[in-house]
Write a structure and sequence with these properties.
235 residues, 6-stranded parallel sheet, alpha/beta
Length: 235
Amino acid sequence: LIRFFRRIIIRKADVIPAISHYLADYAKKINPKAELHLIPNGVDLEKFKHMPNSEENTVITVSRLVSKNGIGDLIKAVAVVKKEIADVKLIIIGSGPLEKGLRQSVKDLGLEGQVIMTGHQSPESVAGYLSKAKIFARPSLSEGLGTAFLEAMAVGLPVIGTAVGGIPDFLKDGQTGLFCKVGDPQDLAEKIIKVLKDEPLREKIINNAKLLVAEKYDWDVIADKFEQIYERIRL
């Protein structure tokens, strides 16, 4: 039902801002006559500011606990990483319908002492948790854009994600983050180990990502783009 009404709304639009190339292509197929603008979601750089990150081998994810975000694969990947890096930890921030099953998976894999599930947290708390981690990872099966990745990049975390949806708009493999394969915990584990062990690569990714977020995803930059559209339409 939601998809049905969404298509009707898109067909009636004269101007469509899309937060990623993936969604812009989707809108263009439905309404090829509309004026399309690529304007991503932004990041509050005052709230999510670069800060020293943990020296511990801690992976973090911020996510609704739903199938499309691949958190089950992330837990399985940490079990693989543990075989090589015994002190690895995982912080999972978020809630959702899969929470009970994911907690059971943590127990089944013997990770109770290494996986922390915090439930839903305020944006202010999320920024604090990010500062306690060393890597952000979310092996999504689909993604409109992925604002949580951008917030992690702004704080100074190297990110690992999949090449789906809007993620390739900001994640360039080996430059602003690392790609892992969809639905492949082993490949994700290898990427986590690589980032934890390769300090020059980690620093390169952190610096490139921080610059990208400041240039393209600052809310002030985004607001200016919307203002230009609104002013032109108003006139």
